[in-house]
User: What shape does this take?
Amino acid sequence: MIKVLLADDQRLVRAGFKSILDGEDDVDVVAEAANGTEAVALTRSVKPDVVLMDIRMPELDGLAAAREIVRIAGARVIILTTFDLDEYVYGALRAGASGFLVKDTEPMELIHAVRVVARGDALLAPAVTRKLIAEFAGRVDRPAPSPRLNSLTDREREVMVLVAAGLSNDEIAAKLVLSPATAKTHVSRIMTKLDVRDRAQLVVLAYESAMITPGWMSTRDVRDRQ
Assistant: This one.
């Protein structure tokens, strides 16, 4: 059973999401929060697997709340936003969120997102996610490249670049002429070496370390440049 906490200051929004999620046999909405402070407190007490977090809330905004939740509880956070080009979403990914959804997403996409994030993956499939990262990655202050990158082999760096470009394990396998299992092993080993939780964090680290640059996002671009 996937335990979900809903955090949104609009009661009707919470009710809508709850109605959708509670209809699934493997999902249970265990708590609701009307602001970021409540979300953090409830995460401590009910220990949800996934937190659906509105990015704009009173008292403590979703960005700050997501950072705190990831730090203290290790729950996985999906950011909810009204706009598909919300500049705060990139900051949320940097804070440790595993992905985001726009609030007018289809019910089945919401359910799929919760399941994907609950099993430890990141919600990077929607093209709008890559668009957001490409749009705002160049606007943030970039720290010096992490020395942890020195631990990666050439193959692992190649795989990390393809992850950052939004390719799935199967697509990486096809691109590099590997088996899907080998591609998955490479991704898992990279995350272990770099001490990141999921693919979303790999994407952020790849941008911040200048392994890939904004604007170089489409699969076609990756294929042309490799």
Q: What stands out?
A: The domain at 147-225 is CATH 1.10.10.10 (Arc Repressor Mutant, subunit A). The chain has two domains: 2-123, 147-225.
